[in-house]
Amino acid sequence: MQRVQNAYLHDVSISNLDYSVFPHGSDGKKQPFAFFWHGPLSQWHPSKFEVAGIDFNCAEQFMMYSKAKLFGDETSALSILAATDPKQQKVTGRNVLNFDQKTWDLFKEAIVFQGNMAKFSQNPDLQETLISTGDYYLVEASPYDKVWGIGMAVEDKGVNDPINWKGQNLLGEALMNVRAAIRYRLDHLKK
Predict the structure, then answer these.
(1) Rounded to the nearest 5°, which phi and psi values hold at 105?
(2) Who has the most CB within 10 Å: 61, 67, 92, 103?
(3) What is the DSSP code string of 58-99?
């Protein structure tokens, strides 16, 4: 596995391994992986952006604030906005009142897409970083997260084969959708 020596991608590993179980790209070719956990693709990466007149310091803050608002927990929403540390934002978000897993499952991916669309659209350096991942299949290699990540570290045996993944990689999927949306917008601005 090679390490990308790019200032913005210092925490992104690229694997050019070609596995038959790996998802195919729209052009019918197999895509290589881009593993990340920390760094610019992370929800915790410092990134100022605004949504609906509200300023956020990272995508994690947006996600947890939106979660609190979804369940009508105004106290937690305000606490999340006041917190500057993503770890504290996450702790508060995990304790949102009136939380319902089925409702969260219906909205969580759209919320994370919206937050990351704002993050990458409003920060040119971060947008360049995301676009520079090309057609790599983005994979959050968090050994601790089986929802947003794959529940494995990039160093773990078998990480290059999705059949071994222990998680859903929802953040990787959201980021690929954001990347596609930004590319579409940029392509249409040129015309």
Answers:
(1) -60, -30
(2) 61
(3) SHHHHHHHHHHHHTT-HHHHHHHHH---HHHHHHHHHT-TT-
Confidence (pTM): 0.84
Q: Which residue has the tokens 């045996």?
A: 157
Residues 6 or more apart in contact with residue 150 via CB below 8 angstroms: 139, 140, 141, 142, 159, 165, 166, 167, 168, 169, 172
Question: Three-class SS of residue 51?
Answer: strand
Span 79-131, pLDDT tens digits: 999 999 999 999 999 999 999 999 999 999 999 999 999 999 999 999 999 99
Residues in the chain, how many?
Answer: 191
Q: Does residue 153 sit within a domain?
A: yes
Q: What are phi and psi of 33, to 5 degrees?
A: -90, 150
Structure tokens at 188: 């249409």
In a domain, 125, yes or no: no
What is the number of domains present in the chain? Answer: 2
Question: Quick check: is 175 in a domain?
Answer: yes
